[in-house]
Amino acid sequence: MTTEPPEADAMPLTIDELAARAGVTVRTVRFYGTKGLLPPPVIGPRRVGHYGQEHLSRLALIEELQHQGMTLAAIERYLRQLPPDLSPHDLAIHRAVVASWAPDTARTATRAELDRRAGRALSDEDVERLTAMNVLRPDGETFHFDSGLLRLGVQLLDVPLSSESILAARNVLVEHSRAAAHELAELFRGEVSERDAHDVKSLSAHMHPIVVQALLTTFQRSLREELREWVASSQVDGSA
C-alpha cells in the first residue's frame, strides 16, 4: 500500500466515508481494490486507510462504465489502458465523455442529495451557475441533472470563466461531437449493412469504449497544442 500523502486540497476519507460519498458499499470498495480497479489507500496513524478524490473519481467512472453495460472484465481492460497519472479532473472528463454515450443518465435529487452527489455544499450562486450551464434543471423542490456532467460542472465552478463562456464552449463541443458521431455512424453503417440487428448491437457495444478513448485522447492532444501555441504567441506579442 502507498504511503504518499493524499492530495493537499482534499480531505482524506475513511473507507466508510468514501463508500457513502460514492453511493456504494464498503464491501464493493474493498472488492474493487483487490481487483486493481482502485489504487491502494494511504496508510495513516493507527494503520487506518485514507482515500482521496482520485478514489472517488474512479468509483464514479466505474459506475458510469457499468451503466454502459460493460462487464467487470471489460472495465478492468478499460482502466488499464488509461495513463497511470490521471488526475481526478482527468477522470471526471473521462466519465463525462463515457456518459455521453448513455441513452439516459438523468437523475433527480433534493438539494441535500445534490450536495452529496456534487461532493461539496453548493451555494445558491453555485446552483444558479450550474443551471445556466444546463447542468441542473430545477423542478420545484428537486433538481434534474445528468449524472455524467454534474461533477464536471462542479469543477468548472472554480474555473475563472463566465457562465456564458462555459456554455458557449459546451455548444462548440456538442456541435462538433455530433458531426464526428454522424461521420462515424456513416462509416460503421457500411460495415454492418448486411448484418443482423444482434451483430450491430455487438459492434456498437465494443466500439463505444474504443471511440470514447480515441476522441478524448485526440482532443486532449489538440487542446494542449492549441494552448501551447496561444501561450507562445502571447509571449511574442508581449515582448514586441
Beta-strand percent range:
5-15%
* Tally of separate helices: 10
Q: Biggest β-sheet, characterized?
A: 3 strands, antiparallel
Q: Examine the coordinates and then state which fold CATH places here, giving the name of the CATH topology of the domain at 1-85.
A: Multidrug-efflux Transporter Regulator, Chain: A, Domain 2
Low-confidence stretches: 1-9
Short description:
This protein is mainly alpha-helical. It has a domain of 85 residues: Multidrug-efflux Transporter Regulator, Chain: A, Domain 2 (Orthogonal Bundle).
List the defining traits of the structure above.
single chain; 240 residues; mainly alpha; Multidrug-efflux Transporter Regulator, Chain: A, Domain 2; 3-stranded antiparallel β-sheet; two-stranded antiparallel ribbon; 10 helices
Provide an overview of this structure.
- There is one protein chain.
- With 240 residues, this protein is mostly helical.
- The protein has a domain at 1-85: Multidrug-efflux Transporter Regulator, Chain: A, Domain 2, CATH 1.10.1660.
- It contains ten helices and five strands.
- Strand 1 (42-43) and strand 2 (49-50) form a beta hairpin.
- Helix 3 packs parallel to helix 5 (88-99) and helix 5 crosses helix 10.
- The chain is globular and about 55 Å long.
- Residues 1-9 have low confidence and may be disordered.
